[in-house]
Amino acid sequence: MSDIYIKGWLKGQDKKQKTDVHYRSLNGEGNFNWRFIFPFKYLPAEEVMVISKKEHFFSLDKHEEKHPVTFVAQIWDNDIFTPDDFLGLVELNLNFMPKANKFAKSVSLDDLPDNEKGKPVPMVSLFDQKNVKGWWPMYEEGGPDQPRELTGKCEMELEILSKEDAEAKPAGKGQEEPNENPHLDPANRPATSFLWFTSPWKSLRYIIWNNYKWYILGGFILLLVVAMVGLFIYSAPGALSEKLIAKL
Longest Cα pair distance anywhere in the chain, in angstroms? Predict the structure, then answer.
């Protein structure tokens, strides 16, 4: 059972964005319907983005850095009392990225260009296609002697817009206003997805009853049997003495 959320950013940019949390995922599946927006300055001739940064906190002037346009998405398990658990990631160079799968069942680590088998992978450029949609593998890097591990699959739609197009088609982050281009409805999540301490009755129903109902029923039956046996033991001497007196 996991409380899943997605974190995303462009490599080189400081600000990271997060989805809301899909609480109590019983099967490891998370639904978000969430929008990330990353403005950046792009140099088509060099296929890089330009980032202006201060070299130090107290620096007065900014300097420019050039980075490949690489989108990073990570899956995390939200924890309240301990640090969040990292579950997996995918990194996509938007100029040269693996083509998305149409179906989740087809996704594997072989879809990555640096797969262990050396298998050729079809590559696409988001800057050429403008919009791509599909499934990509999420993975966790192994240690020095351990292979990369497939830890999830993520369905995303990626779109690149010029500054003019972005201004003509305004859209808010997440599901904020203006929630258009396209409009995003709240994620379709099962009734079990909720924060346990804000919904005590749901907690009793989905957490305690669903997981321990047979123990609860068994305990109730046991208490009933014990109560009946106790009542019998308590009433038996009186009933027996009444019968003896009646015989005398």
Answer: 117
| pLDDT, tens digit, 9 for 90 and up, residues 166-203 | 999 999 999 999 999 999 999 988 776 555 555 555 55
Rounded Cα–Cα distance for residues 226 and 66 (Å): 76
Strand partners, 98: 123
The β-bridge partners of 67 are 49
Residue 155: strand pairing partners: 135
**How far, in whole angstroms, is CA 203 from its chain's centroid?**
21
Amino acid at 204: L
